[in-house]
């Protein structure tokens, strides 16, 4: 995926403050460097003058080792994929074992309500955030600070769009769907990538003309189903191909 310098600049200057990463601190990366999910902490640590810790591959699969590392190195910020965090919370310390000192960020896949509820119960005043979006939109494009109230009785919210980004829930005719109705998520704005390197066919299929922007503007067709809530938050509702 060919992301742009402008898209990354928009991300690093606007997103860290939305997910509690805007102050210097110690950041721990537990994702493989072949994915872009961990880049949230890589760039946040760079732009805030923080300290970056990249945990060894043998450590990140061991709940006890991860918990010990977070404590001994006084880690402030951690981002994890929900399924990975769920496996780590099965350790002897439970959800508390994956909580850093200041903020925990979830991203990379849908967050189960039960996992989030357990993390929130253990977190107290510490921030727990959801950060949603595909690689084709420069790491992620929606954020939500999670709370027991935001969970309600439904799905975990993925939040609101980041700066200079527009999110559309559209039907098959590219018309906006009503609040509460599931539609396919399209992303437009500063963080949309140029396309797939060497794949003009796939680029043309997924990066399409945006009928709600300036002439020549494109939007990315994610394949995700989402719905808007009454208070302007997005909720993940599955995949188009499911």
Automatic annotation (TrEMBL):
One of its GO terms (biological process) is amino acid activation for nonribosomal peptide biosynthetic process. Gene3D superfamilies: N-terminal domain of ligase-like. This is Non-ribosomal peptide synthetase. Transmembrane segments: none annotated. It holds the Pfam family AMP-binding. Keywords: Phosphopantetheine, Phosphoprotein. Residues 1-196 form the AMP-dependent synthetase/ligase domain. GO terms for cellular component: cytosol. GO terms for molecular function: phosphopantetheine binding.
